[in-house]
Amino acid sequence: MSASLADSAQATALLRRLGATRVAHPGGTLLVHLQRVRELLAGWGARPALQLAGLCHACYGTDGFPTRLLPPDRRTELAAVIGAEAEAIVHLYASCDRGATYPALPAPGAPFHDRFTGRTHVPEPQLARDFAELTAANELDIARVDPAFRAAQAPELLPLFTRLRPLLTDRAWAACQVVLAPRGQERGD
User: CA 12, CA 34: separation in Å to the nearest integer?
Assistant: First the structure.
């Protein structure tokens, strides 16, 4: 078993212990969603740290999904299982105040608003790319399994991901177009 598969198995075991199988989420349970997000990132060629972050991205809750499996003050517990790099991606993702942060992305030096602290900062370029890729994987997974979500959110998400295009891999961008484009206007370029 490769290190990333072992890490993924350990992370999945932690998520089960924390109750991710008991939390409802579009398309099944929270754990099922988290696994699909990890698989989507893997399909896009994401490195292991980003895949593990995808698997655990909702541990601290998010601006759009307030259910917490762990409070943010217990970051070391998650880092012990998935590593510091993956945990930093999870924390950034969970801390995002979407309403304040999304409008300026991905402008150079755009402030990232932390909903936990109320502070702003500018993430390092790799972390900003990871944030964009994880955001796309999360939203696209929900849009694929929940037609009502897709119908309601695609008109906002496609412009967001169009702005984030410089931060997204080609595979992620292609998936955004296929999943979020108005029916009959899908593109795969």
Answer: 9
Residues sharing a CB contact under 8 Å with residue 97, sequence separation 6 or more, in sequence order:
63, 113, 114, 115
**Distance in angstroms (rounded) separating the CA atoms of residues 116 and 94:** 9
pTM for the whole structure: 0.93
Closest to 43 (Cα-Cα) out of 154, 137, 146: 137
CA 47 centroid distance within chain = 14
Tokens coding 126: 């790799």
pLDDT in tens, 138-168: 999 999 999 999 999 999 999 999 999 999 9
Between the CA of residue 49 and those of 34, 134, 152, 171, 186, what are the distances in Å? Answer: 14, 11, 31, 18, 30
Question: What are the pLDDT digits (tens) for 122-137?
Answer: 999 999 999 999 999 9
Q: What is the pLDDT of residue 155?
A: 94
List, in sequence order, the alpha helices (H) in 96-183: 98-101, 125-145, 147-163, 170-180
